[in-house]
Amino acid sequence: MLEDLHIASIVVSTIRNAPVLMFAAMAGLFAERSGVVDIGLEGKILASAFVSAAVAYVTKNPYYGVLAAILVSSALAMIQAFVSITQKGNQLVAGIAINIAMSGLTFVVAQFFFQQGGRTPELGDARLPEVILPGAAALENVPFIGWFYGHVIGGHSILVYLAFLLLPIVHWVLYHSRFGLRLRACGENPHAADAAGVSVERTRYMAMLVAGVLCSFSGAYLAIVQSGFFLRDMSAGAGYLALTALVFGNWRPLQTVLGCLMFGFFSAVQIQIEGVDLPVVGRIPGSLIQMIPYVVTVVVLAGLMAKSVAPKAIGKPFVKSR
């Protein structure tokens, strides 16, 4: 049976691992295309993960958890936007400050409310349910088709489908809408956009708000779909991996999603080979296996950083010409 093969598990795991990075990468895409460096993705993921898990546990409703994550992540995005856009502050420092603050604050608040070592209780039935496609049970025993229909296409939470649906939506918004045109203009040449009557600050604020909403789905997915609880620093660098996917994808939606799938694939491989005796090399220590996604990150950055072309105005505060 195909289900018994490791490749089948790797494919399904890749699909389930990728949304955390896809949501964060699409968030970073909007922010950075507008000219704002979004190093704060990691902190917003952590805040969203904690709030979604806490609210879902208390209310026993995962959808309330997702809504709470949207509110918190959007609030953080607006704080970051105020410092970076209105106050013309250093965008890198603003993002790193959010990451550090959320790393500590989520742990302290979780410990204060739940007294479980900085984590939330298991969510149980408060997790987002899997979508079972019509006819999946009838096709279950059909070779390949049953597995593909029931486990590759079906069997995921609604956030997984939303993550993949984002690709055509983001592509259309970025390249075929007035907002996308203004967004790219603000990231490439904000002074020309300003001369054409576009409010650069307003456009960047809107981009950061969209980034905050998208990033909230990443944290919510991590807590109430993948793990079923919140744990300190559970994002494990997902925000930085998402930024790497942006570099890999040259700040374009399709290529960025492919980068996210690549990292999701290596994470799936890491899980599959952990504790397995491999030919020639034998059993690889778990600590070395856990390094795989990060080694891939370094290789990608070293090989592609020189070839990637970032938006020209990225990281530069806009000062209106007089």
Could you say which overall geometry the principal axes of the C-alpha atoms support? globular
Which architecture name does CATH use?
Answer: Orthogonal Bundle
Give the uncertain stretches in residue-range form: 1-5
Please tally the helical runs, counting DSSP H or I stretches of 4 or more residues: 14
- Annotation, overall tally of beta strands: 2
Averaged pLDDT: 87
What portion of the residues fall into strands of 2 or more residues? under 5%
Radius of gyration from the CA trace?
A: 20 Å
- Helical coverage, percent range: 55-70%
Q: Give me the side-by-side strand order of the main sheet.
A: 1-2
In sequence order, what are the helices and strands, one letter per element? HHHHHHHHHHHHEEHH
**CATH class annotation:** Mainly Alpha
N- to C-terminal separation?
Answer: 70 Å
Largest sheet: 2 strands, antiparallel
Structural class: mainly alpha
Q: How many domain units? A: 1
**What is CATH's topology name?**
ABC transporter involved in vitamin B12 uptake, BtuC
Pfam families: BPD_transp_2
Protein name: ABC transporter permease
Keywords: Cell membrane, Membrane, Transmembrane, Transmembrane helix
Subcellular location: Cell membrane
